[in-house]
Task: structure prediction
Amino acid sequence: MGSLLNELRDTSCRPIEPDPDNTGEGNGTACHQSRQIPFLCLPRETRHLDAESRTPVALTIAGSDSSGGAGIQADLKTFSALGVYGASAITAITAQNTLKVERVEALPQGMVQQQILTVLEDLPVDAIKIGMVLSANIVREITEAISNYQGRVVLDPVMIAKSGDSLLDEDAVDSVRTLLLPRADLITPNLPEVAVLTNNQPTNNTDHALTQGHALMELGAKAVLIKGGHGLGSTCTDWLITSEQPPIKLASTRISTPNTHGTGCTYSAAIAAQLAKSESLADAVMHAHGYLARAIQSADQLSIGSGHGPVHHFHGIWQ
Result:
């Protein structure tokens, strides 16, 4: 084996995807030379790195957006842009574009839970982001699936699409409030969402918004990030509320662009990605805030659809 490995090191290798005719191996490195080598360049045991050197991993649990701007698709783009390997568990399938949500279908009962458990069984997931959950049944499946998970959890309580279409059943709001909210390390509602979760009217008043955020803390939230994207004025202000310190203000210039599809998904996914890289909660939120601001600033470089286009997840990578 040793002599053969030495021989293989002198060959030209390139990454490959799993062989559809032999799915027992894949995602490794295949060698190509004059004779066929039917196995990976290195033994399986060498591909498992210690915790300090391995790739950070984040899992997104959310709905699929067929237009690619929000949901699972936005989360995976965000993870990748920030140097984190992304896994996914799909909660629902949407038929949507930049103008509307045409149809929403939940996955068969038990499938969401099975996806999560199967991923956690094998992948060393450092952080989980939860987005669109659609129904009370799916909320229960998620809660049960992550009951023994020890990593950080970010909850984005998605309720309404950018087009105005509902993405959460009315009877699921209480399940989010009582089951998922206490389980999350951070919940990231916008102004309309924090109002729904606290049974209040939406507000643009800072004091009222902070009061609603503290009400979520009283309901069991460990930390709350109130997003000010729905607010008024030339400055967009977010507030991070924790039990350890006074609220932290994160402000940025409000950008006039129709291309803001998936901002909430991207924000929460970016926070999860930074947590997966072992950042503190405050640092993760601040870095994610900066990433999202640059993604919105660069959104008009893209030309996607005729409605609310996506932010530019790869603004720091694409030329």
The chain has nine helices and eleven strands.
